[in-house]
Amino acid sequence: MPRLSLTDRFIAGAKSKTAQTDFFDAKTLGLVLRVSASGVKSWNLFFTSPKTGKRARTTLGRYPRTTLADARTRALEAMAHVDAGVDPRDVSGGAMTVQQLVSSYLEKHVRPNLRSRKAVERRLTKNALPLIGSIAVADLHKRDITRVLDRIAARGCAVEGARVFQDLRAMCRWAVSRGDLDHSPLDGMDPPTSAKPRERVLADDEVAQLWAALPEALPRSPACQSIIKLCLLTAQRVGEVAGMHADELDLKARLWTIPAARSKNGYAHAVPLTDAALAVMESGNDDGMTGFAFPDAKGNGPLPAHAVSKTIRLAQDRFGLPQWTAHDLRRTAVTGMAKLGVSPIVLGHVINHRSVTKAGTTLSVYSQYDYGKEKSEALELWADRLVGIVGGAKLLPMRKARP
Asked: Could you say which of 3.40.50.10300, 3.30.160.390, 3.40.50.620, 3.40.50.720 is the CATH number of the domain covering 3-90?
C-alpha cells in the first residue's frame, strides 16, 4: 500500500491502474485517498473501532469538494473520538451511509409525495439495504448497484430489478439535488431489461376448471376463493378486492366505491355490483359485513394482496392449469368483455384506467360523464357470460348486425 506525504498536486494527478488504489497519507494516521479506475477520488479513514476492536473504515468526503487540508482536519477529529472510546461513525455529522440516505429519502420525499410509497420502501428495504446499506454514500459505486441488481436477476425477478434500478436512480438524483451526493453513481448505467409484460389470458375451459377447483385447491382459504371469484367478476385489482370494507359498499344502489386512497391511480372508482358478485360476497359473510370483507388472521386489517398472491403461487399444482397469477384474472375479465363487444372507452372506465378515459384534452376537460350505466351493462354482460362459462356453456361467435 503506497504511503507518502500527500500534496494537492499529487492528488490532482493521481490515477489507478486497477479497480481502486489506496494512497495512505504519511502525515495523518489512518487517512487514505482512494482512487477508482474511473478517476473518482474519495477520502477515507481507517481505524480500530472502540466498540468491536476490529479494523473499520469511514468516509470523510470526496475530492476536490473536500480538500486535503479539510480531510486531514476531519481525520484528526475522528481519531480524537477513537481515543475517547467513541466510534466516529456513531458521531452526529459523520459520513452518511446508504442506510441513512434511504431513511431520509423515504421520510422526506417518498412518503409525503408518492402513492407507491409502500412499494418503494419494500423494494429498497428488501433488495438494497442488506447488501449496500452499510456503505458510505460518498463511496457508493456502480459496482455496488450492479451487485444489488445481479442478486435480483439471480432470483429471476426481471421486473423487480428494473423497478429497484428506478428507485435507486431516483433516490441518488434526489440526494444530488440536496448536496448529499456530488454525482449519482447510476449516471451512465443502463437499466436492466425488464421482462416482457404478461399477456396470459385464461381460456374459457381454464376459467371453468379454475372455478370448479377452488374448494379443493384452497380448502383452508375461503377468503382467497371469494377474492379470486370477485377479481374475475369485477375486473378489479386483487389488492382492491382484498381490501374491500363495508363502508365502501352501497348494497341498495348495488355499488362498490373504491376510495382514492386505495386505488392505484389515486382516483376514487365506482364499481357496479352484479347479482353474481353480490352472491359471492354474501357467501363469505353469513353474518353480514360490518368491517373488512376479508380480514387478516388477527382481524386488525384486510388480507394483504401479497398474501393472496402467495397463496395462489403455492397452490399452482392443485389447479391443473399452466401458471397463472391474480392479475391474469383482471386481464381475462377485460378480454372477455372486449370479446362481447364492450368498447375500449367503457372498458377503461370499468378498470379505472385514466390513460384511456382521460386521454387528451377533450376527454380530460370536457367529458365529465362517468359512464356508470355503461359500466353496469358491461359487467352484467360479462357476469352472465362467466356464469355460462362456469356452467359449461360455449361462447357463440358474434355476428355482425344486418344493415
From this structure: 3.30.160.390
